[in-house]
Write a structure and sequence with these properties.
Number of strands of chain A: 0
Number of helices of chain B: 10
Radius of gyration of chain B: 23 Å
Order of helices and strands of chain A: HH
Helix content of chain B: over 70%
Structural class of chain B: mainly alpha
Number of domains of chain B: 1
Distance between the termini of chain A: 165 Å
Strand content of chain A: under 5%
Oligomer: heterodimer
Largest interface: A-B, 30 and 40 residues
Structural class of chain A: mainly alpha
Largest sheet of chain A: none
Chain lengths: 166, 267
C-alpha cells in the first residue's frame, strides 16, 4: 500500500506515452475521420434533399405541362368538333340546296314535258278528230279551218265548257 | 491441483502482508525463479509491468484500427470508432464543443482505467488499479493538467482570482484569506479523492474475489479435488459492473474538474 515515487513516476511516464501514441493513432485520425464522414453524410443528405426538391419541382412542372397539354387537346378536339359540325351543316345545306335545285329542275322539266305532251296530245287529238270527222261526214274539211275549229273545241273541252268532257 | 493450492497459499501469504490478492503470473514466476534478477525486478514493479502491458495493448489495438482505416469502417475500426465517438460525445456533452480538445486525455483515462480494472479478472493477471501508486499517478496527471489548463485559459491573475473565489466586492475581498486555503485544499483533495476512490473500490472487489476463490477451494478441500467451487463467479460479474462504473466516475469527475477550472462563459 506504501507509495513509491519511482513507481508513480514510471506509471505517469507510461500513461503519458500511451496518451501521445493514442492521440497520434486513435484520437486525432479517427475523430477527424468521424468528422469527415459526418460532413460527407451531411453533404450527401443535402444533395439528396436538393435532388428531391428538384425532382419535385420537375414533377410539378410536368404536371402543369400535362394539364396544359390536356386542356389544349380538349380545346383542339372541341374546336375540331365545332369545325366538323359547321362543315356538316354546310354540307347539309349544300346538299339541301342541290336537292332543291334538282327537284325544281325536275319539276320544271316535268312541267315542260307535260306542256309538250299536252301540245302533242292536242295536236294528236285534233288530227284524229279531223280524220274521224272526215270519215264520218265523208267530206274533207278545209284543213286550216278544221284545225282551227278542232283546236277551239279542244280548248273549250279542256276549259270544261263542253258538257261531259273534261 | 498445483494451481489451487498455490492460489490458497499465495492468498494466505498476501493476507498476512495486507489485502489478499490472487496470484498473477509474475508472482508465480517469482515463487519459482525468485532468484533470477529480471523476475525479481518484475515482481517489484509488477503494477508498472501490468500497466505498461495494458498501455501497449491499447496502443496496438489503436494502431491496428488506424492502419487500415477507411471511410466505411468495418470490424475493429468500427468498434474503436464507437468507443471514441461515445467518449467524445461524453466529454463534449459536459465541457461543450470547445472542450473537445480534452477528449484525447479524458478518453484515454477512461479506456486505460477500464482496461486496468478488467485486467484483474483475467486469470494470471492483475488490476494495476488495485495499487495506490497507479491511481495516484493518474490523479496527479489529472491534477497537473487541470491546473495547467486553468493557468492557460484564465491567465496567472485570473487563476489567482479563481483560487481567491473571484472577489468582486468588499465582502468577497474580506473572504479571500479564507477562500484561498479552502480552494487550495479543495484542489489538493481532488486527486486524493480520485486516487483513493479508485484504489479502494478495485482493491475491494479484488479482495472479495480472492476471498471467495479461497472459500470455494476450501469448501471442496475434503474431497481432495484439483478444483474448487466457483463461488467467486457472481463477484466477477459485480466486478465487471463496478470496474466500468469506477472508470466512468474517475473520468466524469476529471471532466468536471476541467469544467470548474475553465471560464464558465466559454464552456
Amino acid at each position: 500500500m506504501g507509495l513509491e515515487l519511482g513507481q508513480i513516476i514510471t506509471q505517469i511516464i507510461g500513461f503519458l506515452i500511451a496518451i501521445v501514441i493514442l492521440k497520434k493513432f486513435a484520437w486525432k485520425p479517427l475523430l477527424s475521420m468521424l468528422e469527415e464522414r459526418r460532413n460527407k453524410i451531411k453533404a450527401e443528405f443535402d444533395t439528396i434533399d436538393e435532388e428531391r426538391r428538384k425532382t419535385g419541382e420537375l414533377q410539378a412542372d410536368y404536371q402543369t405541362k400535362l394539364k396544359e397539354i390536356d386542356s389544349l387537346t380538349r380545346a383542339k378536339i372541341q374546336e375540331a368538333a365545332q369545325e366538323g359540325q359547321i362543315m356538316a351543316n354546310q354540307i347539309k345545306e349544300i346538299a339541301r340546296n342541290e336537292a332543291k335545285e334538282i327537284v325544281t329542275k325536275a319539276r320544271e322539266d316535268i312541267g315542260r314535258d307535260v306542256e309538250k305532251a299536252k301540245v302533242q296530245l292536242r295536236d294528236d287529238v285534233v288530227n284524229m278528230t279531223i280524220q274521224l270527222t272526215g270519215k264520218l261526214i265523208g267530206e274533207k274539211l278545209d284543213s286550216v279551218k278544221d284545225k282551227d275549229l278542232v283546236a277551239r273545241l279542244v280548248d273549250e273541252m279542256r276549259k270544261g265548257k263542253v258538257e261531259g268532257f273534261k | 491441483m498445483f494451481l489451487t493450492e498455490e492460489i490458497v497459499k499465495q492468498a494466505a501469504e498476501k493476507a498476512k502482508e495486507g489485502a489478499p490478492e490472487l496470484p498473477n503470473f509474475i508472482t508465480l514466476l517469482y515463487d519459482k525463479f525468485g532468484k533470477v534478477a529480471v523476475i525479481g525486478f518484475m515482481h517489484h514493479w509488477e503494477n508498472v509491468v501490468f500497466s505498461w502491458m495494458i498501455a501497449i495493448l491499447i496502443c496496438v489495438v489503436a494502431y491496428l484500427a488506424y492502419r487500415k482505416r477507411t471511410l466505411i469502417p468495418g470490424g475493429l475500426q468500427n468498434f474503436v470508432e464507437l468507443v471514441i465517438e461515445t467518449l467524445d460525445n461524453f466529454v463534449s456533452g459536459i465541457l461543450g464543443p470547445a472542450g473537445r480538445k480534452f477528449t484525447p486525455f479524458l478518453g484515454t483515462i477512461f479506456i486505460y482505467i477500464f482496461c486496468m480494472n478488467m485486467f484483474g479478472l483475467i486469470p494470471g493477471m492483475k488490476s494495476p488499479t488495485s495499487n495506490l501508486n497507479t491511481t495516484v499517478s493518474l490523479a496527479v496527471c489529472v491534477f497537473f493538467y487541470v491546473q495547467y489548463t486553468g493557468l492557460r485559459s484564465l491567465g496567472i491573475v485570473g487563476y489567482l482570482a479563481h483560487m481567491a473565489g473571484n472577489p468582486r466586492d468588499v465582502v468577497t475581498w474580506l473572504l479571500v484569506p479564507i477562500n484561498i486555503p479552502i480552494h487550495v485544499i479543495e484542489e489538493l483533495a481532488k486527486p486524493l479523492s480520485l486516487s483513493l476512490r479508485l484504489f479502494g473500490n478495485i482493491t475491494g472487489e479484488d479482495v472479495l474475489i480472492t476471498v471467495f476463490v479461497g472459500l470455494g477451494v476450501s469448501a471442496l478441500s475434503f474431497l481432495h479435488l484439483p478444483v474448487g467451487l466457483p463461488l467467486q463467479l457472481p463477484f466477477i460479474f459485480l466486478a465487471l459492473l463496478t470496474g466500468t462504473i469506477q472508470a466512468l466516475v474517475f473520468t466524469l469527475l476529471s471532466t468536471i474538474y476541467f469544467s470548474l477550472m475553465l471560464p464558465h462563459d466559454e464552456y
